Amino acid sequence: MKLTGNTILVTGGTSGIGRALAEALHDRGNRVVITGRRQALLDDITGARPGLVGLQLDVDDAASLSRLSIELRERFPELNVLLANAGISRTEDMASDAWRADDAEAIVRTNILGVMRTAAAFLPLIKDKPHAAFLATSSALAFVPRADFPTYCASKAFLHSWLQSLRHQLRKVPVEVLELSPPYVQTELTGTHQLSDPRAMPLASFVEEVLLLLERGSVPRGELLLERDLPRRWAERDGTYATLFTAMNGH
Questions:
Q1: Catalytic one among 134, 143, 149, 152?
Q2: What is the Cα–Cα distance from 114 to 65, expressed in whole angstroms?
Q3: Predicted confidence band at 190 (pLDDT cuts at 50, 70, 90)?
Q4: CA distance 132 to 124
């Protein structure tokens, strides 16, 4: 993926990894459009950073996606990079008699169907553009899950598989398909406590490493995965899955 001179759409760009990547790419001379559900928040972010564009989008709403597709085609015909980043995470206690599937359904709607809807709505806009790329945010937890986040981890495992198929189907189309698989990063994904959790990687450091990987073209199999997460990526192959699962989840 080229790092300058693009027009980039970032869904879920009002916080966390999406916002940090959007701002870093904007600093590199790209035209960047972020989306989110709350217009007031979009206005606050773009007001503090001239040149960044904020447009309202609910990836769970087909009508919202259709409206934005029309607007992007009219206002940003040069759009060539998509980052499907919108996602949610929630713990689930499936051993509890009070457990219901509501949280799981919400995660599937946003993390899985939201990415698929984003691709369906916006991939046609970039397929004929120079240096086109489609990125989706997965997770290193796709490979070895945290058992207290069962549907979240499973949603990222789904994306890992789905992106491989997308990459194969687009092999004759000049669109680079990339999977961004972050480790545990200091964001508010699981709550405000995560922002200051010393076990989490600082957000700025993560973004810096991701941009360095892109700059070097270090994306084997289209995967943007940090060196520290390779043991999880290859746990099944290396015969270390059970050991890593136990280390992450306890006995």
A1: 152
A2: 10
A3: confident
A4: 11
